[in-house]
Task: structure prediction
Amino acid sequence: MAGMLESMSGYLQVTTVADSADTAASLARSAVAARLAASAQVVGPVTSVFWHLNELGEGQEWKVEFKTTLATYEALQRHLLSEHPWENPEITAVEITKGTDRYFDWLDRTIGHQG
Result:
């Protein structure tokens, strides 16, 4: 956007949801194994209320939170879209604005590391 200052830290928490613990864990494992995220946590079940196909829905979901870098986000998003069983899964990202230098160093070393 014109006139906006770039102030991104370079680190993101990316979130998606799944309808089962097994699917959520599979998404977490595959992304971390591919070095698209340094870590992932599966949280749930959580109760979700949402609009779907013009109807109000409610159900249990499992949230997956990935820690990654801004530079890796697009690849992680592509991976999640290809591996997720839903046609239009939630995939959102928020900037991690604060953290320890040692944690961010670990995140940098882990993402994309081969071997």
Strands lie at 11-18, 39-52, 55-69, 91-95. Helices lie at 21-33, 73-83, 101-110. The two ends are 38 Å apart (CA to CA). The chain has one domain: 14-109.
